[in-house]
Please model this.
Amino acid sequence: MSKSLPKRSEDYSGWYNELVKRAGLAENSSVRGCMVIKPYGYAIWEKMQRVLDDMFKRTGHSNAYFPLFVPKSLFEAEEKNAEGFAKECAVVTHYRLKTNPDAKGKLMVDPEAKLEEELIVRPTSEAVIWNTYKGWIQSYRDLPILVNQWANVVRWEMRTRLFLRTAEFLWQEGHTAHATKEEAIAETEQMLDVYAEFAEKYMAVPVVKGIKTPNERFAGAVETYCIESLMQDGKALQTGTSHFLGQNFAEAFDVKYATKEGGLEHVWGTSWGVSTRLMGALIMTHSDDAGLVLPPKLAPIQVVIVPVFFNDTQLEQISLKANEIKKNLEAKGVSVKYDNRDTQKPGWKFAEYELQGVPVRIAIGARDLENGTAEVARRDTKEKKAYPLENIETIVEGLLHDIQENIFQKALDFRKEHTTKVDSYEEFKEVLNKKGGFVLAHWDGTPETEERIKEETKATIRCIALQTEPEEGSCMVTGKPSGKRVYFARAY
RNA sequence: CGGGGUGUAGCGUAGCCCGGUAUCGCGCCACAUUUGGGAUGUGGAGGUCGUAGGUUCGAAUCCUGCCACCCCGACCA
Model:
């Protein structure tokens, strides 16, 4: 195993794959397409979960849990949704194994134990949930229902990549039911805002909020909202989606409520989710050739203290000071690791914590004790500076704040530099090939043109941004009139 | 599912064409010297060569089947 990662500029996907493994985030498992999320990677996911979960609670949602299996008859009830997922479903057909009479010590599927109705391993839970909601909702007094679940889902992907696309992944899916269309749309938009806030304030990942074109829309939704972000290789990544389901699922599952006025109406629905794919966005937005760069707000270890010592006496003295700093920082809510192992050298530790993206590193040696200082290094810029020990906690606290701001700003600048307006198809292709990033162009609004662009350039419409100001123009491909520019990019 | 490739120690590999029981690096263990950016030396442990079969006195090497993984395509919210 070589010591350094592949360079981003030379082999971006190699860099990503190696980084995920070497930083201890995840690894491939013996199950095709499925990953093992390792403790360090899972710790980041847990922090994401905690923040998001709080945000969901604050907006009135409660958690619940629904089954992993969906009976085929339920699954197919909402036709478009079922069709959209049909090609990537794992299906349970039997419920028993038996010993194989032809191969000693081996098991085989018991042909006698065929399920009467196949069970689909959920690729998403709308079907089970709406079928359940049917029993929960009779009157307007039962609405709204604001439920979220943290779960795993399975989508049998042909080609997988750690975090970005795996056959099984972890996510949360919110499913809400409302009395009115307006309320459901407001919910959809509210959750999109929650995701955007989370991405920008916590992950430090700038996002474009928008709606999907019909081609890219969630199967079964009336409107799909999304947040899109830009990775360092110029490819876009969908980081979250929020769907206005209209009455599609209510109709498919016959979910009606009695109105105040005594009428009977189908309820309105939404669903919204973010997944472990966020980990991919986090990694690819900030990290560099030396390893992971984590935003302080999501870093499992925010500060690491590394002692530099030559003998046990020195270590003892340094530890005294280090533990004091650790305690003081922890009192301020900062998570600190004091790495006093004598089995690794300081230089090794420096490199290791850089690989793991720990935002701030404090090194204390005998020399520092004499001078009453410590060396403080920040991960994002790799700057090192000696500070007096007295107010080091304040310095570190400020630094964590700075890093959070700085990496967001850096990502935002990158996105600005890589967002290009073009007015011709030629220019469009050139920008895609030479520069990458988001390309803002006029489009005639037809699925045919969108499809043609996708086939010819591999770029898709990432979204129609919510904040886009109207601008008269003509479609770069067909010349037909267009009222605004849309975001194109090659995407993950 | 199509086209190409690869499976050899925990990881990365040489050997395969031309058959004779496996090379090197990292990591691991022990000891010593080291320790402010991934230390050095000496010694040591670790292998069903993906798997099943075939050819052969003898197979990592040749042949066949199977499995897994990677790349390209197709597919993909």
User: Anything to note?
Assistant: The first strand of chain A starts at residue 26 and ends at 28. Chain A has a mean pLDDT of 94. Chain A has 14 helices and 27 strands. The radius of gyration of chain A is 26 Å.
